[in-house]
């Protein structure tokens, strides 16, 4: 006798009852881009319906985020000056530091995560301090730690190093603890691949490397065992949350990380993944809402407890509609 699987698919009620993965607004983290200047709310040409905000226009961003039901953001900054050592990344009045203070003033309950990296702030566009054409790992650690500390001092709840230097989680944990920021959490971009899917983000953040590529520090897309080593080390160094990035082509990595480790796992549904869906939707080739729901459900099903996505506001609105 065969099993009648279709009994449990008979109508929406029973389908809802047996559903294994359900999206909640608290699953999503919204990437927010802040720029220097005044009165700026400008759509990002490579990321439809996402905006560059100047500090004075952040009240509108916060209202939209709150209205959508999103509880947490990850901040990216576009500074007005760049140099070899990314000074604008750790200044007290750098763009991120000002934005964190402003967001906390506008809504102390908004959970503020900061991306800790140097590529938006260096004149050469690499994620660290150069020694010739190489990024010097250990020299970079000092700067990464300083950047993270400055974010904590501004009031960030969590820092997220995305530079892929070895030892950065330990360097950040140490400097935060030494300065009384024991409760500032670290979400490590642990398995961050050297991916072509970051293209639209690099346009949005003006962070493309001026020469070469990031293959010397970001991971080879072909490797998965190495990802487990990266994650293991970040956990040993004190990460609170581990991340896999990008998401969709790397769901095997997400699943393995979920099965192997007990820390919360995040996935970053990156700019290229977003842009492909947008382009196909605009061309009338797919049903955007249905695709986005499916895609995000599948990232969660693969094992990600939290998802960073440029669709965060939309998906939270759509979830609310579904429950009406
Ligand atoms: C900074 C950083 C990048 C992204 C997040 N943090 C770009 C990169 O590594 O080149 C990419 C995010 C996206 O594509 O959505 N290093």
From TrEMBL:
Its cofactor is Zn(2+). 5-aminolevulinate 2 binds at residues 271, 310. The active site is at residues 192, 245. Pfam families: ALAD. Pathway: Porphyrin-containing compound metabolism; protoporphyrin-IX biosynthesis; coproporphyrinogen-III from 5-aminolevulinate: step 1/4. Gene3D superfamilies: Aldolase class I. Its EC number is 4.2.1.24. Mg(2+) binds at residue 230. Keywords: Heme biosynthesis, Lyase, Magnesium, Metal-binding, Porphyrin biosynthesis, Zinc. GO terms for cellular component: cytosol. Transmembrane segments: none annotated. 5-aminolevulinate 1 binds at residues 202, 214. One of its GO terms (biological process) is protoporphyrinogen IX biosynthetic process. One of its GO terms (molecular function) is zinc ion binding. Zn(2+) binds at residues 117, 119, 127. InterPro entries: ALAD, ALAD_AS, Aldolase_TIM. It catalyses: 2 5-aminolevulinate = porphobilinogen + 2 H2O + H(+). Belongs to the ALAD family. Homooctamer. Catalyzes an early step in the biosynthesis of tetrapyrroles. Binds two molecules of 5-aminolevulinate per subunit, each at a distinct site, and catalyzes their condensation to form porphobilinogen. This is Delta-aminolevulinic acid dehydratase. The lineage of its organism: Bacteria, Bacillati, Bacillota, Clostridia, Eubacteriales. The gene is hemB.
